Amino acid sequence: MPTPRHHLNRRRRQEALADRPAPGGGSRTPAGVLTEPAPRTGQRAAKPVRETAAEPKGETEARERSARSSGSEKMGRVPLAVLCVLTLLLGGFAGWAYSRAGELRDDPARGNTALTDLARTSEIKGQTGAAVAALFSYDHADTAPFERAGKTLLTGKAVAQHRTLLGGVLAKAAQQKTVITTTVTDSAVERIDGDRARVLVYADQSSVSTAGRPSKGKAAGAEDQGVYAGAMFAVDVVRRDGRWIVENIDTFGR
Amino acid sequence: MTRPVRTPAGIRPALAVALVLTLAAGASAAWAGRDWYAAAHDDSAGYAVQRDEALAAGEQAVQNLNTLDHKRVEQGLDLWESSTTGELHKQLVEGREEFTGQVRAARTVTTARVLSGAVTELDDRAGRARLLVALRITVTTPDSKSTDKDSRMLGELTRTDGRWKLSALGQAPVGGTAAG
Question: Could you tell me the pTM of the whole model?
Answer without folding.
Answer: 0.68
